[in-house]
Specification:
disordered N terminus; elongated; alpha+beta
Length: 166
């Protein structure tokens, strides 16, 4: 009974006075065999791992042979096809303020076209083309005079008006 009282911390005595059955396992006063079982690997997980390894080892270990054959039915057509041209690059993107205080967003491309829109996001762009690669850029009802900081812009329902990037 007195040993149980000592184990529960009711009295503080030196470790030598406390019987071995109530000492804590890692207090430094315990013999080596009390701690040694903490370093042992449990048998069940080791046995399960070994069984899984043996089961996988019994699988078919024959080498896989890969045979290359023509699977692409369009291989001949693609071989004889013309090269595809890359999309045009943007030369300049400009935002213009026009005389009627409206905004015009224009993207000038390397294939002699310009895409104009009146909204920054969304909206349907109108593509205008420069004949023979020289301005003005035109489309039915639309016109942009040049790829510069100051332009003349014409749109359906609006007359020609000056627009500037500054």
């Amino acid at each position: 009974m007195e040993a149980q009282a000592l184990c529960h911390g009711r009295r503080a005595l030196a470790a030598a006075a406390v019987p071995a059955l109530c000492r804590k396992r890692l207090d430094g006063a315990c013999p080596g065999h009390e701690v040694s079982h903490m370093h042992k690997t449990p048998a069940l997980p080791v046995a399960a791992s070994l069984a899984a390894l043996l089961a996988l080892g019994a699988c078919n270990n024959k080498p896989t042979t890969v045979i290359a054959k023509e699977d692409d039915p369009q291989a001949e057509q693609l071989k004889n096809a013309k090269p595809v041209a890359p999309p045009p690059m943007i030369q300049a993107s400009r935002t213009y303020r026009c005389k009627d205080n409206s905004l015009l967003y224009a993207d000038f491309y390397t294939n002699n076209t310009v895409s104009v829109r009146t909204r920054k996001e969304g909206g349907t762009p109108t593509v205008l083309t420069a004949a023979d690669g020289k301005p003005p850029y035109t489309a039915p009802g639309y016109s942009v005079s040049a790829n510069s900081e100051s332009i003349s812009f014409t749109a359906p329902g609006k007359g020609a008006q000056p627009c500037d990037t500054k």
